[in-house]
Write a structure and sequence with these properties.
mainly alpha, 9 helices
C-alpha cells in the first residue's frame, strides 16, 4: 500500500510539473496530463480518505490548523483549475467556444497558487513522509545524514528563490505583463526542475514554521 501511495504521489508531482507550461506540451498534451493528474488525485484522495473522517475528531491546535489551511488552499486552487479548465478546454465537450477571459485568468493564477500550496502541503506533511522515505530508500544508513539534510535544504531554498525570479512567479500570480517572457530560455527539463525547486522553497518554509510552533509548544511555560 505504501509503495502504491508513493507511486501515485510521485506521478501527481511529475504530471503537475510538466503540464504547468502550456508551450512545452501543447494543448493535447496539457489536457491529457490534466486528466491523468485528476485520476491520480482521486486515487490520492482514496488512499487518504481517513483525513476527511478525522476532521471532526480531536483538538485543533496550531499545527493542525496550519495543515488544514494549507490543504484547503491546495484543494481550492485545484478545484478552480479544474472548473476553469473544463470551461476553456479545446478537447472536452465541456469547453466553451468563446470562454470568457476571466476563466483563462482563473486557470492561470490558480495553477501557480497550486505550486505554492503544493509546497505548503508537502512541507507540513514532511515529518510523516521522511521516515517512510528513509526506510524505503535506505537513507538511514548514510553517515552525517542530518548535516546533509541541512545542506540540501539550503541548496533547494537558494534554487527556489532563483527560479522564482527567473520565471517571474510573482508577476504570473498577479497577472502582470512580463516583458522578456518569450526570450527566457525554456526547456522541459529546466522548467520542470526549476518549478520543483520553487515547490521545495515553500515546502522548506512550511516545514520550519511547523517546527517552530512544535518546539514552542514543548517549551515549559515560565513562572
Amino acid at each position: 500500500m505504501m509503495n502504491k501511495r508513493m507511486t501515485v504521489d510521485l506521478g501527481m508531482l511529475i504530471s503537475f510539473l510538466v503540464l504547468l507550461d502550456y508551450r512545452l506540451v501543447r494543448n493535447f498534451g496539457h489536457e491529457t496530463l490534466a486528466i491523468v493528474f485528476f485520476f491520480l488525485f482521486l486515487l490520492h484522495t482514496w488512499f487518504n480518505r481517513q483525513w476527511y473522517a478525522s476532521l471532526t475528531r480531536g483538538r485543533w491546535n496550531t499545527d493542525r490548523k496550519l495543515t488544514f489551511l494549507a490543504d484547503l488552499l491546495l484543494l481550492g486552487s485545484f478545484a478552480a483549475v479544474m472548473a476553469s479548465g473544463l470551461m476553456i478546454s479545446h478537447t472536452l465537450p465541456t469547453g466553451m467556444q468563446k470562454a470568457p477571459l476571466l476563466a483563462h485568468q482563473i486557470h492561470h493564477v490558480a495553477g501557480y497558487v497550486m505550486v505554492i500550496a503544493l509546497g505548503f502541503h508537502l512541507g507540513l506533511h514532511w515529518s510523516a513522509i521522511l521516515p517512510r522515505l528513509e526506510k524505503g530508500m535506505g537513507f538511514s544508513k548514510i553517515p552525517h545524514l542530518s548535516l546533509l539534510y541541512k545542506v540540501l535544504v539550503m541548496l533547494l531554498t537558494a534554487g527556489g528563490i532563483y527560479f522564482s525570479f527567473y520565471y517571474s512567479l510573482g508577476s504570473r500570480l498577479l497577472l502582470l505583463r512580463i516583458p522578456n517572457a518569450r526570450s527566457i530560455p525554456v526547456t522541459l527539463w529546466t522548467f520542470t526542475f526549476g518549478h520543483l525547486l520553487i515547490i521545495s522553497l515553500y515546502a522548506a518554509g512550511a516545514y520550519y514554521v511547523q517546527k517552530f510552533f512544535r518546539q514552542r509548544k514543548r517549551r515549559p511555560a515560565r513562572t
